Amino acid sequence: MDARYLKERAFLIITVALAVIAVFPVFHVLFTILVRGGQTLLKAGPSFLLDVPPPPGKGLGGIAPSLAGTLMLAFYSSIAGIPLSFFAAILAVEFPRSLIAKGVRVLSKALLEIPSVVVGMLVYAIMVVPMGQFSILAGAVALAIMMIPYVTTYVEEALESVPFTYREAGFSVGMLRSQVVFKVVVGIAKRGILTGMLIGIAKVLGETAPLLFTLGRDRYSVPTNVFEYGDSISLLIFDYVQTPYANMHEVAWGAALVLTLMFLALFTLVKRYAGEVRL
Amino acid sequence: MKEFALEVKDLNVWIRDKHIIKGVSVQIPRAKILAVMGPSGSGKSTMLRAINRLIELIPDARVEGRVEVYGRDVYAEDPYKIRRIMGTVFQTPNPFPHMSIYENVAIGPKINRLVKSKRELDELVRWALEKAMLWDEVKDRLHDPPHRLSGGQQQRLCLARALALKPKLLLLDEPTGNVDPVNAVKIEEALKGLVKELGLTIVLVTHTPQQAVRISDYIAFLYMGKLVEFGLTDRIALNPSHELTVKFLRGEV
Predict the structure, then answer these.
(1) 3-class state of residue A92 by DSSP
(2) What is the arithmetic mean of pLDDT over A29-39?
């Protein structure tokens, strides 16, 4: 056996070993959530999604108010955040030299890494205090702020990936600029745009810190409108893990599994749409 | 006064500080083919984009001079309106990838509200595909995406897309540059047919003198942004008056 062959083998083994080390924690997390959360779900049955949480030390109950809260938060933060991000990205790509577009670009990149607890504080100061109470609305605004830089950046990248020649083709058949943007560029980038939006929703689904001082943590009644106190699955997990009660730990694991399944559902959607339009 | 199909007067184009087109003037009558030939980098494509004003998509491009298409001053009119009387086919086939074959041809007439009914649109699509000599190959799969077509077929689809607007002037930027020889011949045949049957005027950018001689009525020879020679193809092919033209025809520049 010559040295080159051995080197080649060593290289392969090291690559595989490092890759395994890198992905192992991810699988470990998924596996643990699946096993421990699965136990809770099996024990509690479907009422886990329909019931209110148990008193300390007794039974499993359910996470209905938190689940409803998470769904409402995802919905309301999306209807605010997604259109804003979409048009911000269009502006940034279509008018790259305007001052506003430059601002959008810089801000959306900078806000990507903003500490989420700061966003929670900000919304506390500008919404919760003046309105005199926590609310789903305040939580949704905080999440929208978290979401906008992500979706804007993804949509920007999707729009920019459309080759220039298709714009020319659009203009050459007599399209107006708006038609080139919406019928050609957005059409070609559609899948990338959709993926960006779904990733934005997934991103805020698990956020906890922006909700700490905005949502109010009412986890014993299902909210009926956005001005009420609410809860989210992430907050429930955050609180219950810190209690000394075994049954609440079990609820937290079950909630973690529900949240993970929501994630996986979203990413299945992303995967389905993630393929690019073939050029 | 005789009206030309295309009249370019003292055209100058700058992109940033680079002087790309330097005082070019040509004029051709209706139903003729003008071949703009020259080595790469001579400004041929830029000249085409100055005619249909797509040059304005490029930041820092500046155009001086006058372009008239069928008597209409291109730079005095609304660019979106004036582009509708010109069809453009680009160097690399660029059918809209997210639309079907049918939609690619139908989009122009739809945008410009040229048709009133679905039937009328169907007929127009068929007509354009026939004129581009593509109909027989795609009539059974009009709703397929264009990437299933070969490069040459895609280019003819782009030709059909341009024709569906019933343009008076057709601009082609090396339409056979990225296409196999069989498809190249088909495209050339289609172009000749368009001139003969519909009276279309064509400006064809090419870097091969053979193609220019084969299909054009007039030749404009560009070199480094300057118009070296312009005239009837027969005259230039047989008796070029400039040394550079001779060299280019021989394949030496």
Answers:
(1) helix
(2) 96
B24 contact partners, CB below 8 Å, separation of at least 6? B8, B10, B11, B12, B43, B47, B65, B220, B222, B225, B226, B227
B2 pLDDT band (50/70/90 cuts)? low
Q: What is the ipTM of this complex?
A: 0.93
B151 interfaces chain A, CB cutoff of 8 Å: no
> Using the beta-carbon criterion (under 8 Å), do A188 and B111 form an inter-chain contact?
no
Of A227, A201, A273, A250, the residue nearest A58 (C-alpha)? A250
Smallest CA-to-CA distance from B122 within B103, B141, B150 is with B103
Measured between alpha carbons, how far is B231 from B219 in angstroms, rounded to an integer?
Answer: 6
CA distances (Å), origin B11, targets A260, B19, B66, B67: 64, 11, 6, 8
Q: How far apart are CA A69 and CA A222, in angstroms?
A: 8
Q: How far is B79 from chain A (nearest CA, A)?
A: 9
**Side-chain-side CA neighbours of residue A111 (13 Å):** 20
Domain boundaries, chain B: 6-94+168-250
SS3 content of chain A, % helix, strand, coil (to 5): 75, 0, 25
C-alpha to C-alpha distance for B196 and A227, rounded to whole angstroms = 72
Q: In this predicted structure, what is the pLDDT of residue A57?
A: 87
**C-beta separation of B221 from B38 below 8 A:** yes
Query: What CATH architecture applies to the domain B6-94+168-250?
Result: 3-Layer(aba) Sandwich (3.40)
- Which of B49, B55, B88, B96 should one mutate to test binding to chain A, selecting the residue with the greatest count of A CBs within 10 A? B96
A278, B97: Cβ pair inside 8 Å? yes
Q: A270-279, B5-14, B164-173, B211-220: which has the minimum mean pLDDT?
A: A270-279
* CA pair distance B114, A259, nearest whole angstrom: 52
Spatial separation of the C-alpha atoms in residues A147 and B120, rounded to whole Å: 46
Could you tell me the CATH superfamily of domain A64-274?
Answer: MetI-like (1.10.3720.10)
**Is the confidence at residue B178, as pLDDT, over 90?**
no
A–B interface: beta-carbon pairs under 8 A: 71
pLDDT band at A270 (very low <50, low <70, confident <90, very high): confident
